[in-house]
Amino acid sequence: MIEDWKQHYQRWLTFTSLNTDLRMQLIHLDERLLEDCFYKNIEFGTGGMRGELGPGINRINTYTVRKASEGLAQFVIDQGEQAKQSGVVIAYDSRYKSREFAFEAAQVLGKHGIHVYVFDQLSPTPLLSFAVRHLGTFAGIVITASHNPPEYNGFKVYGPDGGQITLATAEALMTNIDRIDDELKIEVEDEQALKKSGLLCMIGSELLAEYLQHVKSIRIDSEIPTSKDQQIRIVFTPLHGTTLLPITLGLKEFGYHHVTVVKEQATPDPEFSTVTSPNPEEPQAFQFAIKYGMETNADLIIGTDPDGDRLGAAVKHPQGGFELLTGNQIGALLLHFLLSQKQNKGILPKNGVLLKTIVTSDLGRAIAADFGLETVDTLTGFKYIGEKIGEFEKTGEYSFQFGYEESYGFLIGDFVRDKDAVQTALLLADACSYYKSHGLHPYEALHQLFSKYGYYREGLHSVTYKGREGMKKISDILAQLRSCSREFIAGKKVKDVEDYLLGESKDMMTGETTLLTLPKTDAIKVQLEESSWFCVRPSGTEPKIKLYFGVRGSSLVHAQNALEHLKQSLIAEILSM
Questions:
Q1: Which terminal CB of the chain, N or C, has fewer other CB atoms within 10 Å?
Q2: Catalytic residue positions, numbered
């Protein structure tokens, strides 16, 4: 924390070359907001930084973007001339200032003689991941705040494998950034001068075409789409983001012709004016799409977040209307479809592996086991799934088949090393088409999985605590939960407590403690009787505390009732700590 925020405020206010818009905002902010803008440096975490737009060292703006870029530039320089020549590729989404910040980053990197590639139009995050690998760059940057509200933006960094940076790289970047005394005085090179020298190159549509060729490799059966008049009908909304072109082109190349785009949400819009939140996890985001679905008699509705790494979906209900699927349910459908297709073709490897996070449904584990696959859990965050893919690629221990997380992130083809809504949209279309050709609605196929493997239900409750007091509240809740030792929680017997900060798991029946193999992070997962569990952790990208819940029931009604009871009991117990 910074002792005297007013000194930094005065430093900005008296900086003669300060951006005019930022200066005007400074003048009109009240003291409470000014303190929040300057009381600390905006955090650069394990993947980058994300926060509200605005003036100050605790906001996303021209100068904090330059500071992060300068830290990355110094890291690239430290790796030698080859890293500088390999360069950095930069993508940006539809948010306020995204394109501007992309070029600010490019001009800082170019000032140090580092080659930079920038997309000539807004592009989804998975395309950035692919570009890093395809172009062989040393790093990648995407300017995005994912599904956050309009007032947010961010700066996300990728390593040479196309995955989010490792913890070691993040720590090195944080060290470099912390050494920068004055973000206002970082020098940048002129954009036109960089282009003339060849240090700045623009990326056109040819890279998207190459990416879509790779996406075709995830298909097991290219004959899945039936004749044109029997094809499934799809409604698609990019929620004002980056996926309109990649997904519509991809569906066309996969042979799907009955695709209706939600026109009110097709155009990029940094205000996301037709939705409360541009988040495909939220039912409200699908209001327009469901209306289109009713009008077109659609079989499948898909929607993506602004940077195109998350996908939500709704499927036709046999009794009418549409059923919104959870991330866990989409993952289960995709996983079972993919593995059954590979098994039928005789191409399912004996050492196949499913990768999922610790808060993702165990339905996936049950499905994977039925096909002879191992399941490996990772910490929350797709970066850890990407890291595991790279690890298994080197060791040969496992062959990656599918990765997913409950928060609507999925990956099929490892030519991308982050969650990929474009791949997911195309494979989900194939899955729905396959089920329809066998007389099944996707909703019915999902319930067949429940009937075979168990009725799994999961939930999430998030609470936002903003500002300095909010950070302390989140820290206090975790500390109190960590220090308490209860035999029963939410009326259920505690079986096991996994503390990922301490790196240990304690069997509450025997008192035996075992070490966890995952990296340390501030999260606690508690296994309860009757196949129930919950997990508590602070968000890594927002000022929130997140509570995850999971149950397994004997029927859908039983599972839903058990989930609701567990959720309400835990909210009351934990948030009152």
A1: N
A2: 146
